[in-house]
Amino acid sequence: NDNCRISITTPTKSNSRIGYFGLSNRFGIDVHNGFEIRDSEASYATRFKIDQNGYMTTNQPYGEVRFNSNTDNGGEQKQTDVYTHTVHNGMAHSSGRLTVPVAGKYYIGIHGNILDNGSAAQYLYINGSKVDGFRWQQGDSTSYWKSAMVSAVKPLNANDYLEVYVTGRQDNQSWNIFTVYMLG
Question: What is the C-alpha separation between 81 and 84, in angstroms, rounded?
C-alpha cells in the first residue's frame, strides 16, 4: 500500500544500475556518482548521502565538549564544568554529557593536559558505567607540556550517553577535549 513501498527510477548516468550482479553473486546498487536518500515531506532535503568515494557525507551526528580545568579532589569526578560545546545532527549535550541519537559505530576520543608537577587520568563512562580499558593516565614532576589522549571506535545504541570522569589535576580548557563522531 502507499505506506510501504520502494520506488526506483532508472538512473540516467552511465554504469548505474540496481539489481543482481552475477559475477559477484550479489544484489546491489551500482552508482556512477554517489547515492542519496531525500525527504519528500521536507522539500527533498538530503537525509543520507554516500559520495562517489564511498564516504557518508551528510547528517552524521557529532559533538565536541571542552572542559575547564579540574583540581584534584582525591577521587573520580564527572566533567561538568563545560567551557564550550558543539553538537550537530541530532547529537545532544547536557552538562558535559553527549547523547547519540541513532545506533551506529562512533569514534570517541578524550584528550587532556596535566598541570605542572601533577598527575591525572581521564575515564570514559557509557550509560553511567566505566568502560574498561578506555582511559589515559600520566604524571610528571616537571613544568613541560604533558598531554595524553585515548580514542577508539565503539558500537553505540540510540540514546546511549557518554561522560568523562577525571582524577588528578588537569590544565585549562584549551586541552581538555571530549569528541564523539558517528562513522556509520
Answer: 9
Beta-carbon contacts of 85 under 8 Å, excluding residues fewer than 6 positions away, are: 63, 64, 65, 66, 93
DSSP secondary structure string for all residues of 24-50:
TTEEEEE-SS-EEEEEGGGTTEEEEEE
Taking the CA atoms of residue 25, residue 26, residue 31 and residue 37 in that order, the dihedral angle to the nearest 10 degrees is 180
Residue 158 near residue 43, CB atoms below 8 Å: no
DSSP classification of residue 168:
E
- Alpha-carbon distance of 169 to 113, in angstroms, equals 9
E strand residue ranges, 114-169: 119-126, 129-139, 147-156, 161-168
Strands 45-50, 35-39: pairing kind = antiparallel
Per the structure block, which three cell numbers stand in for 99?
Answer: 547523547
Give the predicted TM-score (pTM) of the model: 0.70
Per-residue pLDDT tens digits for 58-79 = 678 899 999 988 777 778 889 8
